[in-house]
Amino acid sequence: MEKPKNSYRLEKFNKVNEQFFNYYRLQEIIPPNEWDMFIQTLREDLPSSFRIQNCLPEKETLIQYLEEKYFAPLRDLNDESIHAPESIPFVENAFQTNMSRSTVRSHPILRDLHEFLINENTIGTMSRQEAVSMVPPLLLDIQPQHLILDACASPGSKTMQIIELMHKKSSHPDGLLIANDVDYNRCYLLVHQTLKRMPTANCVVVNTDASQFPSVLGPDSKPMFFDRVLCDVICSECFFVNGSLRAVMVPKIEVGFGTSEPNFDRPEPTQIHPGTIGLDRA
Ligand SMILES: C[S@@+](CC[C@H](N)C(=O)[O-])C[C@H]1O[C@@H](n2cnc3c(N)ncnc32)[C@H](O)[C@@H]1O
Question: Which segments of the chain does DSSP mark as H helices, in order?
């Protein structure tokens, strides 16, 4: 039987969550006169952004191609609703643009660019990744010799960035990245998407609950400590606005695990503090 067309109704998403607002009010970090602006900012859509793989030998050629084939022609349109992608100042070879989905669909160059980005993302020459998600790996100051735990790694956009940063100063780094996820199927994504795109001898994927991460023993059978721990447990489903609160970097911050119904008024029952369970060297 043919499926009826328009058998559903799309309603505008109401970006209101009193528990979330109360949580922030209780923190008293936003001055009252900036509250409305803060909430309004959280409600804004995130820009579309993408990052070209730094290890890609042809990255300059790819950037030149993007500039000539898409960015310059988009600027030449002189249309106020169309914003050609611009460099993100704090990330190498990353670009972002503020445009609604309907604008992207409305213009042939933008449609082509969108398709191009999807294909390049599939091939692995670039990652379609939110700009906010690009920040935590940069703050970790990754060095080639570091032992790093990416505690909640899948689907692996930050894992990929960490691998790139490890290889930035040395093509044969001595360090090791342990990319972990509690979800077995999402570990499969890490192996078959991230590591396929970014083959490296310096990353292993493991599948365990990060709140009970076992000690890693060194060659002398003594526990080894991580130089860096990235814990990106919070999923967008927990929040009412995508990107309003995403990556949490540890050590020093407590993070809640595994709740589908976040309670912003009190700490989650299953919290981990990698500092207190002895994962980090600090
Ligand atoms: C926000 S996503 C991580 C995104 C990822 N860091 C990236 O940049 O692509 C959160 C991940 O945490 C995982 N997760 C949730 N609870 C966990 C736990 N207790 N231990 C390990 N992983 C967990 C989820 O399966 C999910 O894949």
Answer: 18-27, 35-43, 59-66, 72-76, 101-106, 108-123, 131-139, 157-166, 184-189, 195-197
